[in-house]
Amino acid sequence: MTATLRDSRAYLRYVLFLLFLVQGLNIIDRHLFGLLIEPIKAELGVSDAVMGFMTGLAFAIFYSLVGVPVARWADRGTRRDVISICLFLWSLMTAACGLAQTVTQMVMARIAVGVGEAGGSPPSHALIADYFPLEERGRAMGLASMGGAVGITVSLLVGGLIAEAWGWRAAFFAMGLPGVLLAIVIRYTLREPERGRYDPPRPKTPVLSTRQAIRRLIGIPALVHISLAGSLHSFAGYGGATWNAVFLMRVHDFSIGEAGVRLALYSSLAAAVSVFAGGRLADSWGRRDVRWYQWMPALGALAHIPFAFAFLLWPDGESAVWFLIPSALLGGLWAAPGHAMVQSLAPQQMRATASALMLLMFNLIGFGLGPWVVGILNDVLEPRFGAEAVRYSLLLIGLTSLWGTAHNFLAARTLARDLDHGSATT
Q: How far apart are CA 115 and CA 16, in angstroms?
């Protein structure tokens, strides 16, 4: 059934709640794996580089390979069904990680998780663009994206406590199976809205091939710079998020449960607030000047760096974790405005594809390379620095946020023109 413009506010809240849960489950596995690096590494007997590969690149390569085809399926088909099918798959495969007995089995499970998760965010973002007008998209995207931060909190807090009590395998089972039920709920209760119903009238454009759609999208300067900015922020962010628990365990002697609780309470909850605030502030300030949709993320990223470095350099672990709060509050401001602007810049028949391209870069550069590079640096630096190697690895990759900030400012330069003069929509 096609939804009409008369969707009630109650139903719109329900839609956002479902997509909030999808975003949460879409990211739980990634951060849970980072928390469980030490016990998995001990059982499988592998290096940090191998753990970094399994954590990120094994997932990200296949996520990226299938991301655009799945998004094209969503742009041409029913987005609700794409989300439901893919959620069912990645939830089962997250649980399957708990059954792995060898490195090969774990890599295969991670690949399957990546294939499934490729169908989560792009169609969700496209649905939000058709449920909410431009002036409400930053807020709506922020509310849905908060699910990711809450998902991280749950994976660290609950996953850490479960792993400490019953082992790392039980944590994967507990985090994976709830998504199977949610997939069924989405299939039978989420309506498919009319595409482009909030877009201004414009001539019909011909149906484009995947190659033509990609060429059209990469010809939008602001969209390209937003994607590059997010990818570089993700490189530092995912690299840190994956190895922060290991840092606390190796350098400050935290247990797995203690590390999970501290990261959940001091970092993930603050990130949830940041993602929501980023969307609200961007919508508010963007009404005066649309460039604030990129200026604000740039300034937030710059301001968070000193706090992120203080967390890594502070000598006492119990005090160091307090720096995670301002770091997360400032560092998460880029997410909602970035996603909202990509959906606003992309033609309505290419919105899932635009999101998939953005997430392809996020995942290859950020989630794929970030954790792996940290693992490699750990192995290279360990002979000299011992357990402290992870501290210096995280400091090095944190510098890429400066590069990402430059692309935020470059995106702001052409954002108004790309929106107002139709380079993305005619």
A: 24
Per-residue model confidence (pLDDT) at position 200: 62
Closest C-alpha among 197, 71, 187 to residue 122: 71
Q: What is the pLDDT of residue 143?
A: 81
CATH number at residue 75: 1.20.1250.20
Q: Chain-centre distance of CA 256, in angstroms?
A: 23
Q: Would you state the pLDDT for residue 85?
A: 93
pLDDT at 356: 74
Instruction: Report the C-alpha gap between 368 and 53 in whole angstroms.
Output: 8
Read off the pLDDT of residues 65-86 as tens digits, 9 standing for 90 and up. Answer: 787 788 778 878 888 999 999 9
Residue 206, pLDDT score:
61
On whether residue 66 sits in a domain, the answer given is yes
Q: How far apart are CA 269 and CA 400, in angstroms?
A: 24
Rounded distance between C-alpha atoms, residue 217 and residue 361, angstroms: 14
Which amino acid makes up residue 121?
Answer: S
Q: Is residue 201 part of a domain?
A: no
Q: Is residue 200 part of a domain?
A: no
In 95-223 the beta strands, taken as DSSP E runs, fall at 192-193
With helix as H, strand as E and coil as C, how does 42-104 read? HHHCCCHHHHHHHHHHHHHHHHHHHHHHHHHHHHHCCHHHHHHHHHHHHHHHHHHHCCCCCHH
| Virtual torsion, Cα 216, 221, 227, 229, nearest 10 deg | 170
> Is the distance from CB of 394 to CB of 98 less than 8 angstroms?
no
* Residue 185: pLDDT over 50: yes
Asked if residue 2 belongs to a domain, the reply is no
Domain coverage including residue 254: 8-195+210-420
pLDDT for position 421:
57
Please tell me the total count of domains within the chain.
1
Q: Using the predicted structure, report yes or no on whether residue 294 has a pLDDT greater than 50.
A: yes
Longest Cα–Cα distance in the chain: 64
